[in-house]
Amino acid sequence: PSNGYLFFLDDGKTAGLIDPAGLPATLLRAVSDGPYALRYILITHKHADHCDATADVAAAYPDAQIVMHASDAGAIGGLARRALPIVDGDEVPFGEDASIRMLHTPGHTDGSSCFLFRSTLFSGDTLFAGSVGGAYGNVSTYDDILKSVRFKLFDLDDETVLMPGHGPPSTIAEEKAHNPFF
């Protein structure tokens, strides 16, 4: 019921998995079918439809670093101790000359995060093509989602490709021009 993403560098040696959810066997097969090593398990937020296969993937790839905002990390149980304590704007190295930047976008959940790799934004349930996520945070609100999008995501280059947690891809320019919430 949600979008997860496996992306890798052109060198074919390094991969990242965004939002490990659903059937673990399917995810594990997708990772093992490639000629790369899984470097990161990146989780956009705490809802089960985005992280319920984390334990299986982490067990199969114990060297993969879990990356998740601390406010939501309790959703992955004891694995939260293994999660990199990342905060807004932090970057993790990805390959020799690339990195993945985390943007903390509270509102959908308190720890909702987006991950920017080059010109691709993995937005979880913060921003969709033509919509935004609902507010389910303990502290953050619907207004926080709108601020996160307006002041963080809409500051990205217009050509940034949006890969949301549900639905089809889009671009930042398309969402600025046509998203009815803005």
Describe this structure in words.
The protein is α/β, with parallel strands linked by helices. The chain is 22% helix and 26% strand. It is built from 5 helices and 12 strands. The chain has helices at residues 24-33, 48-51, 54-60, 142-153, 172-178, and strands spanning 5-8, 14-18, 37-42, 65-67, 91-93, 99-104, 113-117, 120-124, 127-128, 131-132, 161-164, 170-171. A hairpin with a 5-residue loop joins strand 5 (91-93) and strand 6 (99-104). The chain is globular. The mean pLDDT is 96.
Average pLDDT over all residues? 96
Q: How far is the first residue's CA from the last residue's CA?
A: 26 Å
Number of strands: 12
Tally of DSSP helical segments: 5
Looking at the chains present, what oligomeric state does this protein adopt?
Answer: single chain
Major sheet attributes: 6 strands, mixed
What is the share of helical residues?
Answer: 10-25%
Ranges where pLDDT stays below 50 over 5 or more residues in a row are none
Q: What structural class is derived from the secondary structure elements?
A: alpha/beta
**Inertia-based shape:** globular
